[in-house]
Amino acid sequence: MRYVNLCRLYELRVRADKPLCANIGGEFVFLGERGVSGKAQALVPTQKEVEDALFAASGYSVYAVENQLKSGFVTAGEGERVGIAGTVVYERGAVHSVREVTSLCIRVPHEIKGCAEEIYTRCLSDGVRSLLLLAPPGEGKTTILRDLTRIVSERTSLNILVSDERGELSAGDLGATADVIRFADKLTAFTAGIRAMRPDIIVTDELLPRDYIAVKRAIESGIAVFASAHLKCYRDVPQKLFSRYVVLRGLGGIGEILGEDGERVD
């Protein structure tokens, strides 16, 4: 990767016997021996190289990440989420393992200090409240959440609990008052964290419809929640629990900020 600017590398697509692709600065390109190339000059990983990359990402112990593999991903040592595609094996109606892995989607986390400054100023500078970031995958939600956590920690000294289900949200500076629960589902992390850590704020990533139960309980308990979801707009949010909805546009850009009633907030 010596010919690629790693600061602009967001994602690698490693597919067996197919050209190597990368998302660099928001654009997908092919990669050859000397960096960006045409399709014909791109490197073509073998099946063994895909398997070796997954083995390395697992810390050279697939058994140690067996539960993650069942969910279709592995989190590497620096918070890189490695999504996998292959043959799913079921046992007694439940996912037992994934074998014959043929594709990897390696998402590279970035720490961009200051990227959440505008959101803090417009949504939280007059008081902490619950907010939800909305955007399709790959548009900077995790990076912004991470920086927002740091900013709030530094400026308010409130106790923050980070529910990091996939191990990538906490890959960076979260501030001195942040505590992290990794690799637990959100209901478990929220329930255990509220009881044991007494947070003022809970931060979590990629809400699914089943997670709103945990969020509702936290907000009703007087805890602010910062979260993100793979949604494009306010009307797609299954439960309107938050005080602010930040719709992102492009890589980390703010499209609009809405209040709890869905109306624009200046």
Question: Summed up, what is this model?
Answer:
With 266 residues, the chain is of the alpha/beta class. The protein has two domains: 6-107, Beta-Lactamase, CATH 3.30.450; 117-259, P-loop containing nucleotide triphosphate hydrolases (Rossmann fold).
What does this structure look like?
This protein has 266 residues and is α/β, with parallel strands linked by helices. The protein has 2 domains: 6-107, Beta-Lactamase; 117-259, 3-Layer(aba) Sandwich (Rossmann fold), CATH 3.40.50. It is built from 6 helices and 14 strands. The protein has a 7-stranded antiparallel β-sheet with strand order 4-3-2-1-7-6-5. Strands 10-9-11-12-8-13-14 form a 7-stranded mixed β-sheet, with helices on both faces. A hairpin with a 5-residue loop joins strand 5 and strand 6 (81-91). The longest helix has 16 residues, at 141-156. It starts with 8 loop residues before the first strand and ends in a 7-residue tail after the last strand. 36% of the residues are buried.
Features:
7-stranded antiparallel beta sheet; Rossmann fold; Beta-Lactamase; alpha/beta; single chain; globular; 6 helices; 2 domains; 7-stranded mixed beta sheet; 266 residues
The CATH topology of the largest domain = Rossmann fold
Q: How many structural domains does the protein architecture include?
A: 2
**CATH A-level architecture of the largest domain:** 3-Layer(aba) Sandwich
In order across it, which strands form the biggest sheet?
4-3-2-1-7-6-5
* SSE-based structural type: alpha/beta
Task: Quote the beta fraction.
Answer: 25-35%
Helix content: 10-25%
What form results from the Cα inertia axes? globular
The termini sit apart by 43 Å
Radius of gyration: 19 Å
Query: Could you state the order of secondary-structure elements as H and E?
Result: EEEEHHEEEHEHEEHEHEEE
What characterizes the major β-sheet? 7 strands, antiparallel
Classified by CATH, the class of the largest domain is Alpha Beta
Q: How large is the count of helical segments?
A: 6
Low-confidence stretches: none
**CATH homologous superfamily heading of the largest domain:** P-loop containing nucleotide triphosphate hydrolases
Overall pLDDT, averaged?
Answer: 92
Number of strands: 14
